[in-house]
Amino acid sequence: MAVPYLPPGTAGAPYPGYPDPGYPAYPQAVPAYPRQYQPYPLALPTYPHLPPPPPKRRRWALWVTLGVVALLVLCAAPVAFVVSKLPLAPEERASANEASTGTRGVPSPGPNAPLRERLPWIRSQITTALEAQSAALLRGDQRGFQAAADTKARKLAGELDQRFQSLRALKVARYNQRIVSGPTKATGAGGRSEWKVRIQLQHCFVTSDCRPDPVVIDSQWAETANGVRMVSLGSTPKSDNGPRPWEVSNLKAAVGSRALVATTSRYASRLPSLLKEAEKAAANADQFVLGSRTPDRYRVFLAGPTEWKKWYGGDLPKWSVGFATSVSDDRMEVVINVAEIQSDFLDEVLRHELGHVATLASYGYRHEGNFWLIEGIAEYIQENGRSVYGYDGRQIVRRYLRDGDWDGNVNVSAPSSSTPDWQVGAKYGISYYAVRRMSERFGRSKMIKFFEQVIRLGMSLDVAAKEAYGVGWSNVNTDCARYVRSQAG
């Protein structure tokens, strides 16, 4: 399930997509969060668990043959998210270049004019329609928002209605659209001549002064009796971490001072409790924000079974219940699987997933080989203020050690989609104990410095340890391994 991570700006990204719209590439998601689990016959008191975090983090619940015990864990599946950079086809490039000189207000050259004369006019008509559509959305004018569409495009009418309702529910506060390639000739229904256009859409929710999140989508337009009108509108492709929830689902939302939560109508009754827990998790995560920007709002989406398989591309391990995924170079969004999450587990998953947002969202991060550190600090943030003896993962780590599956290296490898649930939990637990021990031994600020040097700057563990702690990694690992054994014993 892991896709190699490519840092921002890396050439040769494996994803097809669109021409570079002018903003940097960013990672797609972080590991998923495992379901709640507890092995027999060991048992610990349970306490509220919070939902998980693209590239995606999940919580898990598992019934084993001999019994059940609650454990909160998070599993990460690194995925590279790269803003599309697929070259244009020769004819499309020529069309785009010819159209680039077009300006709004250019009079129609007539249907029989040469293509080089018609393209500027077509482009100016579409640009005007997109600007009018954006303005209508921001002022709450649904009829004006749909005016860009061909009246005969019934499927598109329904899609625009859904998109309008969802964006308004999310308190859209900024919405700009611009052409990034095209118009390019296309053939529509019945052989009608149409125009394909790729659009960059930048948006903000709740506050208009945020750094806008960009998506690039396909659209198709036709010349009608009412002018040039949209006949189809795509959503963010899977290769670019799409589709986004508001593109394909009718959402309801609730907004707090630090969090924005949303779900479909079916689960809208859960929004008040979800917002309450998200606000508490956000306050906790704010203590650990790294990078240049504190999130204006932490965004959390509650997904039903259908949405779980569709939003942000789906394809998550069966053991996960939530994840955090990048939607821009400094923003991540969290998704929770309503079919898996338990009410007393929600707070932990949220604390963990929002911990990912706080530590990873504001800059490109290096995920490959760093599962233990990324998940360990998220577990540490989740457990902030709690006694180490109350950690739910203790028993599962003990089992892992007793089975002889651990070699004493706290830099454990990331679990795969086929890794048994209990081993996933053990890997999260070892990671948590290691990060906690570094914080206890050297202090939180030095532990965070070590994290930033490895995850943000790409230093080796040994170099980062010497820089942050004044000792080599072997010394740190030996001490952390001793701590893991003492806590799980």
Structure overview:
This protein has 489 residues and is an alpha+beta fold. It has 2 domains: 320 residues, Neutral Protease, domain 2 (Orthogonal Bundle); 147 residues, Nuclear Transport Factor 2, Chain: A. Helices cover 36% and strands 19% of the residues. It contains 14 helices and 12 strands. The strands form 2 sheets. The chain has an 8-stranded mixed beta sheet. A 4-stranded antiparallel beta sheet has the order 4-5-6-7. Helix 9 packs across helix 11, helix 10 packs across helix 11 and helix 12 packs antiparallel against helix 13. The longest helix is centred in the first third of the chain and has 25 residues. The radius of gyration is 24 Å and the shape is elongated.
Instruction: Classify the oligomer.
Output: single chain
Low-confidence stretches: 1-28, 35-103
**pLDDT averaged residue by residue:** 79
Number of strands: 12
Please report the distance between the alpha carbons of the first and last residues: 32 Å
User: Can you give the helix content as a percent range?
Assistant: 25-40%
By DSSP (H or I, 4+ residues per run), the number of helices equals 14
Main structural class:
alpha+beta
